[in-house]
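Internal ticket - ligand job 275, fe (ii) ion:
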Amino acid sequence: MDMKALAPRCGVEIAGVALADCNPADMAAIKAAVHEHGVAVFRNQDFAPEDHIAFAKAWGGIDLNNYFPLDPRWPEIALVSKAPEQTTNIGGAWHTDHSYDQIPAMGSILVARVLPPTGGDTLFAHMGAAYDDLSDEVKAAIGGLSAFHTADHVYKADGLYAQTDQGKVLRGQDLRTGAVHPVVIRHPVTGRRLLYVNGGFTINFVGQTREESLPLLTKLLESAVRDDNQCRVQWEPGTVAIWDNRTSWHNALNDYHGHAREMHRITLSGEPLAA
Ligand SMILES: O=C(O)CCC(=O)C(=O)O
Ligand SMILES: [Fe+2]
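stdout (structure tokens):
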């Protein structure tokens, strides 16, 4: 296997491995790379849905996303789709997945199935780099804080997506979610300190109202996505990306109106988070 950084502080491209036929040593090296770099990209993979499911099972458990449509043929696979006539995409703002769960998903394995002629890249940002860049003053201010996360404002019947043309295909409008996590977590495997609030699902710091939380929360969210924390994944047929929801955030660019894009996603189970 050959690993090359995608950008100085985020992401890695891994060549010389067929994910559909991956030995335990390769698997261990891939896991370590995903945990450390936040996202790993693999090109020219021959990776059928059955391979996708078998590979995901080798990571541990699979979490079923409660909101995205599931593929009727392979219910472990969620469809992250945008039809030519739709204007809204899934994940089109900086976020990390499932932070509203008590035990958030570790990450996802995303496979490009239908791509637009141009555009549709996904940006990633490294939350270890984001934490390291904070001033000592801010680090001290957030060291003991926890934050409340929920997805209700996004997915419920009168939530953000319901106002858009993704509303009809999404499930789970009656579900209610909520979880509290430390603002700074230790990566469960690498031990690295990571900023763990995000613009999609973090509402307030515990002990503060939303209004009281917003000045510091906004400052954290803005500084986390500095250009030099980011990398960009340009999808090609056969591209597979695996990301770690603790180490990184992502943002799916919505710049291909009039064209279809469909990704197959399997969500990997995580472990409890701690400061
Ligand atoms: O479509 C993408 O590139 C990613 C969308 C997203 O946010 C997700 O699947 O979690
Ligand atoms: Fe996402």
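Auto-summary: The first strand starts at residue 2 and ends at 5. The chain is about 20% helix and 25% strand.
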